[in-house]
Amino acid sequence: MASPFDIEEIYPDDGGRPLRLPRRQVGNSPQGVTVTLLADYTLRTRAALPSAAIVALLAESGVSAAGARTAISRLARRGVLEGSRQGRRSSYRLSRAAAANLSAGGNWILAATGTAVPWDGCWTLVAFSLPQDRAAQRRALRGQLRWLGYAPLYDGLWISPHELTPPARAQLAQLSPGAVTVFRGRHTELDALGHRAPVDAWDIAGIARHYQAFLRRWRRLLPRVTSGRVVGAAAVRTRTEVMDTFRRFPLLDPQLPAELLPAGWPRRSARELFAAIYDGLAEPAERHVRAVVARFADGVQPTIRAHTTADMLAGVAGDEGGADDPPPVCGP
Asked: Where does the Transcriptional repressor PaaX-like central Cas2-like domain lie (predicted)?
């Protein structure tokens, strides 16, 4: 099974808008950390932060000043950030498209790791055939199927225990017109040895190992979080790391029905631990981000609010900007 950390996109496409969120890499890329920071503290307000403050916050996560400025510039070119300038000071905030995309993604992360819905015993099968000269289209289709929770039973046959929703149906039709067939039915057991069951499309033991690794890593830190001993830059850095780690699980574990999973499946424990760390550090992390931004803000300080799991479930994304916003710029 491919590592979940190799999957390029964590969040869904944004309805065809000219927006490209950074690719998710092994470890934390400067662009990924930048997006996480802004989402964690400005998603509800779309507040614009001074570029110098963003650079300073990224430095606390080990990103060099040059790497931070390059990340900001590239995110602006991709449509993830939009810039403004007052005098010699430039500021950046999440674009409307990025805020909507990240809000939907945050909701998806928690919804997909919640309690599994009852299963009717049927499977949805997506069969497709694309020639070699349409490799890019094939990659896009596979990526969309992966995001929807499907797995390859065979090369051109992907399956899921869940029904195909109307939005998902529209996305697949747009990606591969005339090349995909979708049907739903029950699995028939064969007496022959070596037959492949649908659930074999997923590496259940491998998924469990990733969950256990997450639980081992973050349980050690939980007592320090609950006792208020993680503060300042460490609080911000820890929230970023736990988010970047946990948000990969919906792609790894597509909320398979309980009937298909072993007893004691660790999904709920991992979700509860994530919420305890992420929400437990919200207040000290917010205080630190405010303090760093205050060092670079001239006049009124931007509205900074730590995003919580409750906000993620609510799908909150706001905009405090208006007609008096400064003119946009393209570079840091």
From this structure: 118-190
